[in-house]
Structures are given as structure tokens and as C-alpha cells.
Amino acid sequence: MFDKVLIANRGEIALRILRACREMGIRTVSVHSTADADAMHVRLADEAICIGPPASSESYLNVQAILTAATISSANAIHPGYGFLSENADFAAKVEESGFVFIGPSPEHIRLMGDKIAAKKVAKDAGIPVVPGSDGLVKDAETALKVAGNIGFPVLIKASAGGGGRGMKVAETPEELPEAMKAASAEAKSAFGNGDIYLEKVLKNPRHIEIQILADLRGNVVHLGERDCSLQRRHQKVLEEAPSPALNENERQDICRIAAEAAAKIGYRSVGTVEFLYEDGEFYFIEMNTRLQVEHPITEMISGLDLVREMVRISAGAPLGYSQKDIKLRGHAVECRINAENPETFVPSPGRIGDYYAPGGLGVRVDSALYTGCTVPPYYDSMIAKLIVHGANRNECLMRLRRALGEFVIDGIETTIPLHQRLTSAADFVNGDYDIHWLEKLMNGDKG
Hints:
Elements: E1 4-7, H1 11-23, E2 27-33, H2 40-44, E3 47-52, H3 63-73, E4 77-79, H4 89-97, E5 101-102, H5 107-114, H6 116-125, H7 141-151, E6 155-159, E7 168-171, H8 177-192, E8 197-201, E9 207-215, E10 221-233, E11 236-242, H9 249-265, E12 270-279, E13 282-289, H10 296-303, H11 307-315, E14 332-339, E15 351-352, E16 356-357, E17 364-368, E18 375-376, E19 383-391, H12 394-407, E20 409-410, H13 417-423, H14 427-430, H15 438-443
Parallel strand pairs: 1-2, 1-4, 2-3, 4-5
Antiparallel strand pairs: 6-7, 6-8, 9-10, 9-12, 10-11, 11-14, 12-13, 14-19, 15-18, 16-20, 17-19
Helix pairs in contact: 4-5
């Protein structure tokens, strides 16, 4: 096992990794920008090293600074968390070339699945259905119009690299397609340094279903069930639950088995998430995320497994130590992403935290790096906390969730807690009757 792990991230995920390492007897090194000098992941780490000024490009995305920090601290391994460099194949390769262990998938798998076109081909070869669309990249409007004519409007223009909803635009008509392509390509180029795009058919009212898998270095693969991530705003997830209220047991078992078999077929290692759109009883592969997901805690709540611990064990060469029949999923869990934003306009709201009180009680977990008096800087993602609630069934979970939201106090800035209170009380959500468009309709006053 590793003696020391460097955590190449910040905020709640850095703290989450730190806690898992400490429980395993592993010393930790936190890196930080000057803006995060007083952050909780810095305060609690065994060692902390400043790697640059506030801008991510000069700190948390500064590969050489991170590798230098690992060298001077004598770390054995580097955990990237999520976001930042977590799905950067070149970074993973440089970590290994520098003599450290990258806690995550191989650079080859990160590169393969980071290319959405290549990932779709892998999925098709593995027998997984994919969303109808272009066979490869679309370079010009003329080609795009031909593809769109075959699959039908509306169409979705997507970046071949990256994720998180960036580089995605919808064209409702042929007239809208050229400008939508330009906008998607420009956004992708700015976000990922790669402006390549492709086309997919827009499904009318799909759910977003993802399968969590775990794979060790010896070819053992298990799935940990599915998560429903359909509550989204502008392609950004807002709330997730596990299991999905939309699937029956046969559908659940089939799609989880398919995802695990596909991961085994390509020799995947570490954690991974295979994502699908689900509509009218059919699943369509959209991508595979080669990292720890923001929403991993709800899978931990129903499975009893610590996914960060499992990542560390796998990267250290340990076998899973269990098979699929040993995995028992129990109860229901929901995660609310709490952002430092106005709950109606979604304008960012950085600033100093006043009173802070995290809810508690049976089945309630809060992943956050906030504390009274800390400052939420304006330079990074606005998510400041995750409220995760578990219950014996979905009804108990939702009752507990509403109670926990009512207890949560974060003063000094605006947060999206009121939004979660609104949507978790809406009749359609309570009934499990929602899709990826539902939340934006709620915000527009069409539902709820």
C-alpha cells in the first residue's frame, strides 16, 4: 500500500480523498492555490504545498507544479479527484513517467473514452446500442445537413472531447444548424482545446441513467447498480438518485450486466461510469467517464463500499476481493448539489461564510469543505456542498431529504438550497415522473 498520496484537487473532493486515505493509514499531501491557503483540505492534510496563484491554469491545472510537489513531498501516488486533470490522459501518462502511481484508469483508457467518437465505436463493438448520429466527426455544414436529414431534426451538436455539458448545442431546424455548429465548436475549443464536433439525434423525453463499475488489475469487474441523473439544468446535473425510479428489475439487471461486460472486454481498471439515455424501454450509450463522479456518494450509501478506498486499493495492485454476487444494494439514496448561486437566476455568489450548520441524523451525510468564516472564492466551480440522504425506500429517503434541507444553514452567500426544497416537493418528482427536460420546465413555471 502507498505511504503517501498527493491530492491534485481542491474543495470537498480533496477532503473526501484525504479522509479515505487517513482511514487507510496513508499520509496525505494537499496542493493549493494562494486563494485556497486557508481551505479545509489544506488545514487537515499532513502536508500542504502552494502550487500557484488563484487561476486554475496556473495552479490546479499546472502539471509541472503538481509533479514537482509530488517529488519534493516524496509522494508515492497522485489522486486527481474529479474535474481539473482527472480525465487528462497526458497528465496521467506524465504521472506514471515521473515514477508515481496515477490513482485512476490507465492513460490509454482515459484517452480512448475521452474521444466520444472512439468511445461510441467501442460501445457498438461491445454490443451496446448508441444514439443515432454521425459515424464520425462532422467538419462542415453541408455534411452535417446530410446527417441531420437522415436522422431527423432536432439534432444535438456535441464536442468529441470533454464533457459537463460544454460544447453542446441543439439545432431545431436546418437553418439553425450552421450557427449551432460554430457555437459548439468554439465553446469546445475554449473549454478543452479541441473544437471537433459530431451530431446525434435528440431524443424527446429521455432519462439519464449511468452505471457505476469497479475493475481491478486482474480482470475482475463488478457493477454497483445505476444512478438516475436526469435532473439537469443546461446539461449540468443538479440532483441524482439511486436506484432509478424509472427502471424495472429486468431492465436494471440487463443494462448493468452490459456495462460491466463492456468494461471487462476492454480491460478497464479502477472506477468508471457508463452513461446512457433511456427512453421507451431502450438504452442508448452516450459516454464513459473515466474518473470518480461527483455523485459517487449515493452509490456508496446503497452499496456500503467506499469508492475512493477501492480506487486506492486497485491502483496499489490489490484485487477487488469480492464478486458480483457479493454486492448487495440496499435502500434508496439522493444527492443534492448545493451551489453558491442565486437559486432563481443562478448568478454566482462567492463570499465569506457566516453561520454554517450542516444537517445530521440517521442516513444523512454532507460532503463539504465549508466552515464558519471561510471564503468561497470566485475562481472555481460554484458547487460548495453535497447533501446525501439514504433511506430504506424512496419515500423514507425523500421525507428525510426534505427534513435535512430544512436544517441546512449557509449564511453570508446565496445558495441553491431553496431550489432543492422546491423541486423535491414537486408532485412529478415525488412520483418519479421526470426526464432530462423536467427541471428547466419547472424553472420556467410549466410544472411543479
